[in-house]
């Protein structure tokens, strides 16, 4: 009988332990100490290390507060975060992106920071852009930690050898230079064409550059008259030029090239031009094939009127509505958005900074970062625009657009059909929304 | 004559019914106590999510607004069946499963035959052959994605140096080649499982039967087809079934190599389901998941009927 009791006790203990594993740390303890749980979603080891160091600083400044950092692998992070938010447990501070803020706030998972942020000592230090993106429909659900913007990475030596006196300024210039450099026999290609995942983003960037004069900068998939950018006559010129880059200046296998292949193509020296976010600067700088004298960056490519649309993507930190430690959680977001931590985080992760005047730092004035400063200093030419990344159909759009892009590259769809498809998609979605 | 007269009278034995009942209850409690963690674990992490998935398949369960998930009946299933992508995905799934299983069976069988007889360092060879099974399918997909890269990949490099091709092949960019490439990766991954299972079955074939057949004049090929294969046919059928189910259910290699591209030409039913999940359309994704489960259950039922027939022979 004793053995039975022992077995039962052991089993119940195990079941209890299983149940306990579903519980999470958090909440203020009886002794007044607070344990926060913070979840990031764009995880990589180097970035996690920086975040951890910043959290250590926060803990040192706030005795009694401990922050546990949860860093799920990037490809599973969103789902894990959704499950945690849905269960209402296990998350106090979280990474919120412009593509996830809509769904998260719609479900009531995010705390509205409106009453807190404007009273922060460092609020006025934020750039106008940073302050603007925090607000949506009268609420503020996150504070950005930086911006992702496009610039053109180019091989200075190959451009010079091809007889050009500088990098391309417009999409037409890019087509000309990339075509001149293309030499498949030498395994040298003009442009790292993105045909795989997220390839549609560069097509849209080209269309926006061609329609910039009539573009609705607050919703950069529409023109000021309310029609979509895909219906504009200039869009046809844009896509024709853009897809010529594939036909004349890219490897045929670029149909399936995503981020890793594009960056590898540039860093191993086989492609001359790459359109990418600044986060690639650190990766290219580590290349053992090309040294720093062989590459640089140039501002985003302009359309026929000499202007370009800079689609700034962003992400930041927010507080979970279900958090039992909102005060401490808000304090943590305030700390991370402060001048020193935010600038450090932006520099270490190659982000456009959120702090006003941070661009004056020599870090941003020199080398590959200078093109970003050049764009920031000329907002008339390089117009910051907001893409509708927070709409409920954004992921559906990404998947559809990528498949249509590949259909054009494989010859089963024309560029005219592509624009008609995309125009119909967005027109119907906008109509359904209203 | 009555039945009572034929049947001998049953001996009335003294049995200890009370003691047996007490022992049985205690015994049952002990078993239940030891099983309870496993039961709780399985119910919690397998059956509850499964039932939740069934529940979601009949609702408009969208990430964008989880505060309202109205009942929609069969609408999610109708949406999937009417989607123009569905026929393409269904055809791709059949190509993916058949194209993966047949080479895996043939190569796995040959590998098992090679490892059957004793030779020096057989253990080392076995470990090397079985190693891929320990690798994550997603990682295998990532590795093959780079191996099949047209410009920097080792596949084209080897083929060029061997003189098989004159120009690099765009493996993952060409629709026909892309399906071939993902199947090659899956074959490499799955051969191991076939080899393990078939080798185990081969080792159960009695030596005396093979020796008797050899004495009777049966050659190697005759012994293989008349003795070995019939002897291990149950294992072969079981292995094919298991791998077919896993291959049907496995999106990771395709997802890592092509994400269903180019232009959806390598999309199978489970990568399609992931696509809906990423859109936040959990209702539609659950409807696909439930449909897959039903198809596989029907498949299993046919298999079990066939197995019963084999065992009755």
List the topology elements.
The complex is a heterodimer of chains A (434) and B (313).
Chain A: H1 2-22, E1 27-28, E2 34-39, H2 45-61, E3 65-70, H3 74-87, E4 93-97, H4 101-106, H5 114-117, H6 128-134, E5 135-136, E6 139-140, E7 143-148, E8 151-155, H7 156-161, H8 171-181, E9 189-191, H9 200-210, H10 233-249, H11 259-267, E10 271-276, H12 280-285, E11 295-298, E12 308-311, E13 313-319, H13 326-336, H14 339-348, H15 362-365, H16 370-377, E14 382-385, H17 394-409, H18 415-433
Parallel strand pairs in A: 2-3, 2-4, 9-10, 12-14
Antiparallel strand pairs in A: 1-2, 4-13, 5-6, 7-13, 8-10, 8-11
Chain B: H1 3-6, H2 17-57, H3 75-82, H4 85-116, H5 122-130, H6 137-147, H7 154-161, H8 175-202, H9 207-215, H10 220-249, H11 252-257, H12 269-279, H13 282-312
Summarize the model shown.
Chain B: The chain crosses the membrane at residues 28-47, 94-116, 128-148, 176-202, 223-246, 282-306. With 434 residues, chain A is an alpha/beta fold.
Task: Give a structural overview.
The complex is a heterodimer of chains A (434) and B (313). With 434 residues, chain A is α/β, with parallel strands linked by helices. Chain A is built from 18 helices and 14 strands. In chain A, helix 17 runs antiparallel to helix 18. The termini of chain A are far apart. Chain B is an all-alpha fold. Chain B has a single domain (86-312), classed as Orthogonal Bundle (MetI-like fold). Chain B contains 13 helices and no strands. Residues 1-10 of chain B have low confidence and may be disordered. The A-B interface holds A 1, 3-4, 7-8, 10-12, 14-15, 18, 79, 82, 86, 102-103, 106-108, 187, 189, 195-197, 251-256, 258, 261, 264-265, 268, 270, 392-393, 395-396, 399, 402-404, 406-407, 409-410, 412 and B 26, 29-30, 33-34, 36-37, 40-41, 44, 62-67, 149-152, 168, 170-175, 178, 258-259, 261-264, 275, 277-281.
């Amino acid at each position: 009988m004793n053995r039975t009791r022992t077995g039962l006790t052991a089993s119940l203990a195990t079941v209890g332990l299983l149940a306990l594993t579903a519980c999470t740390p958090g909440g203020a303890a009886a002794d007044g100490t607070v344990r926060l749980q913070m979840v990031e979603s764009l995880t990589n080891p180097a970035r996690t290390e920086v975040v951890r160091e910043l959290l250590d600083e926060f803990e040192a400044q706030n005795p009694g507060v401990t922050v546990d950092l949860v860093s799920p692998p990037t490809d599973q992070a969103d789902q894990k975060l959704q499950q945690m938010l849905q269960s209402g447990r296990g998350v106090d501070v979280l990474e919120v992106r412009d593509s996830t803020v809509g769904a998260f706030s719609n479900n009531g998972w995010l705390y509205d920071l409106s009453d807190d942020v404007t009273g922060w000592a460092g609020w006025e230090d934020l750039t106008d852009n940073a302050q603007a993106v925090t607000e949506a429909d009268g609420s503020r659900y996150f504070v950005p930690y930086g911006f992702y913007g496009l610039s053109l990475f180019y091989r200075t030596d190959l451009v010079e050898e091809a007889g050009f006196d500088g990098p391309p300024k417009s999409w037409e210039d890019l087509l000309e230079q990339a075509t001149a450099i293309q030499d498949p026999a030498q395994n040298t290609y003009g442009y790292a064409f993105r045909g795989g995942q997220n390839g549609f983003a560069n097509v849209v960037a080209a269309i926006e550059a061609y329609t910039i004069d009539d573009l609705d900068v607050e919703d950069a998939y529409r023109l000021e008259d309310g029609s979509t950018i895909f219906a504009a006559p200039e869009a046809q010129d844009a896509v024709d030029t853009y897809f010529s880059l594939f036909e004349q200046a890219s490897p045929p296998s670029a149909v399936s090239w995503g981020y890793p292949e594009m960056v590898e193509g540039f860093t191993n020296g086989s492609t001359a031009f790459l359109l990418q976010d600044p986060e690639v600067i650190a990766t290219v700088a580590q290349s053992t094939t090309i040294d720093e004298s062989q590459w640089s960056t140039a501002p985003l490519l302009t359309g026929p009127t000499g202007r370009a649309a800079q689609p700034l993507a962003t992400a930041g930190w927010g507080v979970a509505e279900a958090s039992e430690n909102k005060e401490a959680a808000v304090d943590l977001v305030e700390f991370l958005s402060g001048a020193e931590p935010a600038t450090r985080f932006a520099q270490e992760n190659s982000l456009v900074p959120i702090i006003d005047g941070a661009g004056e730092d020599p870090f941003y004035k020199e080398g590959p970062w200078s093109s970003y400063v050049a764009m920031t200093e000329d907002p008339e030419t390089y117009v910051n625009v907001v893409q509708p990344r927070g709409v409920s159909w954004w992921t559906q759009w990404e998947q559809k657009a990528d498949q249509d892009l590949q259909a054009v590259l494989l010859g089963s769809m024309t560029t005219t059909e592509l624009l008609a498809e995309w125009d119909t998609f967005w027109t119907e979605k906008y109509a359904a929304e209203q | 004559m009555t039945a009572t007269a034929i049947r001998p009278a049953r001996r009335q034995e003294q049995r200890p019914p009370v003691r047996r009942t007490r022992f049985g209850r205690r015994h049952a409690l002990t078993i239940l106590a030891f099983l309870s963690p496993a039961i709780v674990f399985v119910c919690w992490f397998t059956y509850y999510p499964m039932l939740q998935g069934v529940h979601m398949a009949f609702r408009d369960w969208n990430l964008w607004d989880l505060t309202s998930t109205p009942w929609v009946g069969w609408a999610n299933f109708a949406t999937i069946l009417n989607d123009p992508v569905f026929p393409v995905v269904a055809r791709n799934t059949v190509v993916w499963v058949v194209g993966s299983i047949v080479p895996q069976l043939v190569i796995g069988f040959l590998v098992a035959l090679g490892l059957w007889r004793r030779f020096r360092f057989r253990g080392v060879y076995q470990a090397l052959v079985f190693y891929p099974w320990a690798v994550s399918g997603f990682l295998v997909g990532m590795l093959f994605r780079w191996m099949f890269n047209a410009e920097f990949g080792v596949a084209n490099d080897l083929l060029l140096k061997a003189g098989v091709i004159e120009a690099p092949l765009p493996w993952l960019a060409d629709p026909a080649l892309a399906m071939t490439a993902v199947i090659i990766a899956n074959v490499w991954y799955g051969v191991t499982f076939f080899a393990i299972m078939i080798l185990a079955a081969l080792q159960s074939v009695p030596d005396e039967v093979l020796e008797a057949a050899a004495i009777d004049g049966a050659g190697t090929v005759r012994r293989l087809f008349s003795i070995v294969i019939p002897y291990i046919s149950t294992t072969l059928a079981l292995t094919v079934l298991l791998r077919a189910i896993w291959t049907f259910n496995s999106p990771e290699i395709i997802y890592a190599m092509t994400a269903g591209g180019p232009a959806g030409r390598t999309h199978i039913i489970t990568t399609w389901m992931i696509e809906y999940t990423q859109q936040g359309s959990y209702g539609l994704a659950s409807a696909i998941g439930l449909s897959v489960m039903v198809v596989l259950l029907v498949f299993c039922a046919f298999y079990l009927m066939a197995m019963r027939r084999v065992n009755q022979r």
